[in-house]
Specification:
Strand order of the largest sheet: 1-13-12-17-15-14-19
Shape: globular
Structural class: mainly beta
Number of helices: 3
Number of strands: 19
Radius of gyration: 19 Å
């Protein structure tokens, strides 16, 4: 049985059709399911956020590995500098990730695609840390993984993210959720790229087209949440009460799952910055 979930009233002909908010914070995830990096600017390219989830960990079968099965991955830090992406593996040190020339076919959910194997030293270190054989792999520019055509008609691509290049979250929705929790959580539990302030709680349910600074976006799918939201983003320790997922499920459950945030694709633009004005429109401009 599904629980009806709280929704913000939709726009009407008599309502204000354009709302102006701001970018509260921005995050990049250089390696899928490792710690993210809070940034002040995100550059955009065909993949979405430049540098977001172009790296990933896979097992010996080429299957993607995440915190769902290895919560300790939350403890591996990531960094971005002029040399590219680096990872800090507890007890092992810091490693710069650079793709080699050896190719490997890898799997993300139902999508098989080509990748390039990363440095052996980093893969050996993460294997020791996780006590299983793992490899870092990189998605090169000539690998095209299409965004779900059932949701997006255009030929949009995505890196190693679960399904879509962007995840928007509403700071007011987190605040409303925290008002129901004994122990409040922070936005890092939900791993968004773009956090927006100035909106009403859960108004993102009705976001369709967004302009952020000079970039335009289309919201394409509410984001269903998994067990990763119940893990401490610093330690990977799972909350004994499975919060905040348990509370969310009492009022944010739909046929798509327990919802927090909106997946999106971008239509144009070359960068985003913290503080950018956000305009939400009920139809494409």
């Amino acid at each position: 049985m599904l629980v009806s979930y709280t929704r913000h009233p939709p726009f009407t002909s008599d309502a204000l059709k354009v709302c102006i908010m701001r970018v509260h914070s921005l995050f990049l995830y250089p390696v899928k399911s490792l710690a993210g990096v809070e940034v002040s600017v995100i550059d955009l390219d065909d993949f979405g956020p430049v540098g977001d989830r172009r790296w990933m960990l896979v097992n010996d079968q080429g299957e993607f590995v995440t915190q769902r099965k290895l919560p300790a991955l939350a403890r591996i830090g990531t960094g971005i500098d002029e040399r590219g992406v680096s990872v800090h593996i507890p007890g092992e040190g810091r490693f710069h990730l650079a793709p080699g020339h050896e190719e490997l076919s890898v799997l993300v959910w139902r999508d098989w695609m080509n990748s390039l194997i990363g440095p052996k030293q980093a893969s050996a270190a993460v294997s020791r840390f996780c006590e299983r054989s793992l490899r870092f792999v990189y998605m090169p520019d000539d690998t095209f993984r299409r965004v779900d055509p059932a949701r997006v008609v255009d030929q949009k691509r995505v890196g190693f993210a679960d399904g879509f290049p962007f995840l928007f979250a509403n700071q007011a929705s987190l605040d409303e959720l925290n008002s129901r929790l004994k122990h409040p959580v922070n936005m890092r539990h939900f791993r968004p790229n773009i956090v927006i302030s100035g909106a009403e709680p859960w108004s993102e349910d009705h976001w369709q087209y967004l302009t952020i600074g000079q970039a335009r976006f289309k919201a394409v799918k509410p984001c269903s949440r998994c067990v990763i939201t119940t893990m401490d983003p610093d330690t990977g320790t799972k909350d004994p009460g499975t919060e905040p997922l348990r509370t969310l499920s009492t009022y944010r459950k739909t046929q798509d799952g327990v919802i927090f945030g909106q997946n999106a694709v971008h239509q144009d633009g070359d960068h985003l910055s913290v503080g950018d004005a956000v305009i939400i429109c009920p139809q494409e401009s």
